[in-house]
Amino acid sequence: MSDLNDDLVDVLWAGVAGENTAMPALRVSGEPALDSAFPVSDLATASIAVAGLAISQLVTSTTDVEPVVSIDRGLADAWFATAFRPVGWELPSPWDAIAGDYETADGWIRLHTNAPHHKRAALRVLGAPADRARVAAAVQHWRGAELEDAVVAAGGVAAVMLTEDQWLSHEQGAAVATESLAHRTPGRIAPGGFRMPNPARPLEGVRVLDLTRVLAGPVASRFLASFGADVLRIDPPGWDEPAIVPDMTLGKRAARLDIRRDPETFRHLVAGADIVLHGYRADALEGLGFDDTTLSALRPGLVVGRLNAYGWTGPWRNRRGFDSLVQMSSGIADTGRSWAHAAKPTPLPVQALDHATGYLTAAAVIVDLGRAWRSGYGSVASLSLARTGRALATASQLAPLRSVAQGPDAATAAFIARRDGQLPEPVAPFDGAGAAASVTRWPTSIETPWGAAEVLAQPLTVGSAVPRFDKSPRPLGSDQPRW
Asked: Which candidate, 17, 27, 47, places its Cα nearest to that of 352?
């Protein structure tokens, strides 16, 4: 398999398949384009490939066809940044002006303030106005752990930078290390669930209720949509994420629904779904009256994929979090800083924990869908960004990329130098720099409500199935909440 870390593919496949099943045939081509202290390119290729392997297994288990999965490494890396490029117009920045890394009295902390209520919580704790210099001055008076605790207690989100050893000895890090990559619990059985998929469009007719937002869950549902699933994304009134909506609504319908005010419509949607994806914390879903047991009761045979930031056991199982925060907590940003010889926390060149967890979630629910079709049994698969991060760290220890010894390439070093407290925008590897420059990246032109755009070439094929999007991206709330 090219120079891909074969062990990582095996580990991820075993983690999402949930049993010792034979891995379908995989062909890898192309060259990696992401430089990092960690094998991020391996993770990108392996996680997308595993989702393709799940599609292949689904087809093989119900037909006589045995599709071969083919993946291009350079394109896999590119999809870990964005699949969507505006033509003649610009997307807004994905980052709030206050979000970023700040020096504390004893280290570094990251404040995540993209959501208005998270921003208000952080500013309230700091007693500072929405001015970056004033925030930085206020943060310097705090010890990192104390500020993290105060922001979280106020309803905000923040993470101090820990070393990998500190994370592994932390109660939450130790809990995550013992979790399965995709933990399964059984759902209810529905008689007569067998289907015969179309090898050219394996998920055609499959209904996916997508209750997820930034970023892993939408990646999962986008993958499902690309192989034919009918994905209905549900957002609450007032929610928006304009920087990523065009990318993350590819192939989907997008509706709004206040579940608290209209639980009957939500029950109807669940009852008509084959798969439900959600990124709610366990206590938040219970608070809405729809825990996973209730979802399964509404639709026997339902496949549920759920994900969170910090894992499903341990004291932080209900903590809010995002990719950049998990990188800080788990030692990734600190390891990157040492590798890059940088003064500041150095994250991965893309939000790899989000993207990889998204593809692994897609793989898990596809595997479970096949079982539901054969046996009628539904299931719940639980994944987390922190557990994916552990898989990445383990892969780094077992089979580090050549680039680890070399340090960052010029493009990565330039990003680090100019990022000014923000995550680097992953543009250089996808604008012709690096080993994958020869790949044709933007072959498909589309029209959107915002203007003309191009969609990145797909990195994956599964036999005769070439993923495509049957629906153009659209603003949130463009559709009605019905099947």
From this structure: 47
Domains of the chain, start order = 6-87+176-314+347-462 (3.40.50.10540)
- Categorise residue 22: left if φ over 0, alpha if ψ from -120 to 50, beta otherwise: beta
Provide the pairing of β-strand 460-462 with 69-72: antiparallel
What type of residue sits at position 145?
A
Distance between CA atoms of 92 and 444, rounded to whole angstroms? 22
Rg (CA), the chain: 21
Task: For residues 104 and 137, give the distance between their C-alpha atoms in angstroms, rounded to a whole number.
Answer: 9
Which pLDDT score, from 0 to 100, does residue 418 have?
32
Q: What is the DSSP letter of 435?
A: T
Q: How far is Cα 284 from Cα 305, in angstroms, rounded to an integer?
A: 16
Question: Tokens 């390439």, residue?
Answer: 409
For tokens 């790899």, the residue is: 352
The amino acid at residue 260 is R
C-alpha distances in angstroms, 336 versus 341, 412, 415? Answer: 8, 11, 13
Cα–Cα distances (Å) from 338 to 34, 334, 411, 435, 454, in that order, read: 18, 6, 17, 24, 37
Pairing of strands 108-111, 158-160: antiparallel
SS3 275: strand
Judged by DSSP in three states, 3 sits in: coil
d(C-alpha 357, C-alpha 14), whole Å:
15
Give the DSSP H/E element, type plus range, for residue 29: strand 26-29
Angle at 44 between CA 202 and CA 217, to 5 degrees: 60
User: Mean pLDDT in runs of 10 for the chain (483 residues)?
Assistant: 75 86 87 92 96 95 88 95 94 95 98 96 98 98 98 97 98 97 90 76 97 96 98 96 95 97 97 96 84 92 96 95 97 96 96 98 96 91 97 73 35 35 34 36 85 95 94 97 97
pLDDT of residue 428: 32
- Cβ atoms within 10 A of the Cβ of 178, count? 11
What is the pTM (predicted TM-score) of this model?
A: 0.91
Other CB atoms within a 10 A radius of the CB of residue 451 amount to: 12
Q: Look up residue 383 and give its two tokens.
A: 């994944």
Please name the residue ranges forming H helices in 216-344: 216-226, 245-248, 263-271, 282-287, 292-298, 323-329, 332-340
Q: CB of 201 within 8 A of CB of 63? A: no
